[in-house]
């Protein structure tokens, strides 16, 4: 257990209120980031107009230094009394704040883990409602994760106690990421089963359900759900990477702080990559097994389960009947439903059974043999219609399908997914860029889960409220509703975001992990 006398322990933290849990810190921090960009965008317009406005470093401090903000290093009484603030340049204070936030957020995270451990994991009433196997399903190796966080926080606190001016933190991050953070990978991969088993236990175990309801109503959890505590480790390792990235953006080039930040960021990115790949591998295998059980092959059977295969998109579309003639359009049976299963290397065209539980495979093709043609501007009867060409189907012959979707956005999403090598577009500071203002969890395989304050380049958009974007910090792509983002209008702010992203990936030498895909494609990039 951490010392109660330590200045930066959550038992006595002047910058984090006693009941300030990580979930609350995280939301507040992301909202601050959004507001900072909004105000910076407005002030940048002032700079363009020749107005005398605050410079970006001072702006960052002012935006955080208000009653709604998280506490700052510069607001600590010992710092203010020391005279340091008069000796340091604004950019030096900015880097102090970036390192300080990493430490304070870790203290808040550890505090939330303590609630998970003492209030849930070690609660005798709850424990007595569960079997040993269900305990493991729910909590996995969370105690190992806690120990890793405790060691990490103690080292951060010891470093900060050495001097009021924080010398460095990323060397500590790198050390712990190499030596101790592997426990995150195990925990995150187990979350695939954790969520399912929690729902199963909640539904089938009345004693557990009643005990959980009481625990979730306790004041110490601040109205937060049990599941919000279970997902903390992956949220933290991802956020920690972003905090190190923030230090790297602000560090002086060729400095020791930059060098240590690069090493820490690379190691954290590798851990996040292994977490993501582990979760995807388990989820994809389960999904393939589930899909294969529902398939009935009319003629030639196609093996679906493969370690190198995963689902990209599935859903029902309407197959138009007959050629594109007026006579056909006036016939009674204009179209009939077909159900598509699109994998990264395979397309199955199926017919759903009347029960809706089985799918008869009518045709198939490798994804490389697919071509699409948008039939826009060809009359109302062909609204939301596109041609799908199979250059070679399962019978080794070409075939064409005219398909109709339920909406324009659905049509564009299918075209994007079905076309393996779509035309590319050059990204520049004039290209649209958005920030997420409301978190969104993906509902379909081709969608992207995004968090508040995420920055994205926009690749496609529809008139009925959908966008396809690529997240700047990790290169992940997918669709999301327009309502959860706002466009960054100012070209200078967009350029700054791209420059910061470029610096991260150039610092990695192009990068080898998923999060460095931007660098591997060059900068600016082709899409």
Radius of gyration: 26 Å
- First CA to last CA: what distance? 50 Å
Shape label: globular
Helix percentage range: 40-55%
CATH T-level fold name of the largest domain: Dbl Homology Domain, Chain A
State the helix count: 18
Measured by DSSP, the beta-strand proportion falls in 5-15%
Structural class: alpha+beta
Any idea how many domains? 3
Can you tell me the CATH architecture of the largest domain?
A: Up-down Bundle
Give the biggest sheet.
8 strands, mixed
Poorly predicted regions: 3-19, 45-68, 324-331, 511-527
Q: Indicate the mean pLDDT.
A: 85
Instruction: Please report the first level of CATH classification, the CATH class of the largest domain.
Output: Mainly Alpha
Total number of beta strands:
13
CATH H-level superfamily title of the largest domain:
Dbl homology (DH) domain
What's the arrangement of strands in the largest beta sheet?
1-5-4-3-2-8-7-6
Describe the structure.
InterPro entries: DBL_dom_sf (IPR035899), DH_dom (IPR000219), Ephexin-1_SH3 (IPR035635), Ephexin-like (IPR047271), PH-like_dom_sf (IPR011993), PH_domain (IPR001849), PH_ephexin (IPR047270), SH3-like_dom_sf (IPR036028). The chain is an alpha+beta fold. It folds into 3 domains: 268 residues, Dbl homology (DH) domain (Dbl Homology Domain, Chain A), CATH 1.20.900; 124 residues, PH-domain like, CATH 2.30.29; 88 residues, SH3 type barrels, CATH 2.30.30.40. The protein is built from 18 helices and 13 strands. The strands form 2 sheets. An 8-stranded mixed β-sheet has the order 1-5-4-3-2-8-7-6. Strands 12-11-10-9-13 form a 5-stranded antiparallel β-sheet, with no helix packed on it. Helix 5 runs antiparallel to helix 8 and helix 7 crosses helix 10. The two termini are 50 Å apart. The N terminus and C terminus are likely disordered.
């Amino acid at each position: 257990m951490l010392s109660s006398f330590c200045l930066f322990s959550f038992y006595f933290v002047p910058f984090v209120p006693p009941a300030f849990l990580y979930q609350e810190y995280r939301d507040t921090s992301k909202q601050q980031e959004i507001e900072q960009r909004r105000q910076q965008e407005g002030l940048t317009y002032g700079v363009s107009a020749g107005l005398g406005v605050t410079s970006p470093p001072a702006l960052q401090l002012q935006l955080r230094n208000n009653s709604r903000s998280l506490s700052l290093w510069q607001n600590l009484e010992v710092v203010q009394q020391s005279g340091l603030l008069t000796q340091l340049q604004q950019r030096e204070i900015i880097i102090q704040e970036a390192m300080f936030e990493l430490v304070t957020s870790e203290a808040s995270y550890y505090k939330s883990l303590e609630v998970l451990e003492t209030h849930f994991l070690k609660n005798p009433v709850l424990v007595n409602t569960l079997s040993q196997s269900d305990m493991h399903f729910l909590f996995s190796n969370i105690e190992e994760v806690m120990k890793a966080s405790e060691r990490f926080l103690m080292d951060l606190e010891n470093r900060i106690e050495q001097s009021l001016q924080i010398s460095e933190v990323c060397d500590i991050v790198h050390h712990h990421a190499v030596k101790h953070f592997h426990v995150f990978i195990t925990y995150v991969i187990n979350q695939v089963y954790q969520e399912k088993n929690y729902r199963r236990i909640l539904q089938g175990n009345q004693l557990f359900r009643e005990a959980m309801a009481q625990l979730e109503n306790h004041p110490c959890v601040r109205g937060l759900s049990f599941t919000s505590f279970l997902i903390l480790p992956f949220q933290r390792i991802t956020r920690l990477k972003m905090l190190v990235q923030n230090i790297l953006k602000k560090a002086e080039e060729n400095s020791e702080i930059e060098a240590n930040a690069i090493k820490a960021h690379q190691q954290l990115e590798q851990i996040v990559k292994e977490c993501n790949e582990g979760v995807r591998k388990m989820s994809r295998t389960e999904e393939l097994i589930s899909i294969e059980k529902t398939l009935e092959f009319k003629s030639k059977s196609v093996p679906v389960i493969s370690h190198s295969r995963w689902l990209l998109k599935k859903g029902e579309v309407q197959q138009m009947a007959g050629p594109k003639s007026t006579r056909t359009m006036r016939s009674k049976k204009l179209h009939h439903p077909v159900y598509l299963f699109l994998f990264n290397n395979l397309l199955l065209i199926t017919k759903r059974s009347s029960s809706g539980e089985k799918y008869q495979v009518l045709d198939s093709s490798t994804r490389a043999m697919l071509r699409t043609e948008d039939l826009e501007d060809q009359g109302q009867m062909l609204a939301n219609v596109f041609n799908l060409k199979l250059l070679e189907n399962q019978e080794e012959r070409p075939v064409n399908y005219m398909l109709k979707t339920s909406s324009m956005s659905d049509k564009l999403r299918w075209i994007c997914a079905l076309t393996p090598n779509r035309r590319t577009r050059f990204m520049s500071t004039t290209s649209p860029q958005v920030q997420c203002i409301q978190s969104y969890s993906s509902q379909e395989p081709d969608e992207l889960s995004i968090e508040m304050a995420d920055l994205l380049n926009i690749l496609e958009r529809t008139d009925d409220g959908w966008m396809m974007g690529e997240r700047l910090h990790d290169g992940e792509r997918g669709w999301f509703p327009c309502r959860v983002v706002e466009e960054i209008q100012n070209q200078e702010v967009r350029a700054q975001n791209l420059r910061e992203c470029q610096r991260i990936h150039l610092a990695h030498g192009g990068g080898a992990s998923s999060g460095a895909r931007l660098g591997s494609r060059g900068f600016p990039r082709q899409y």
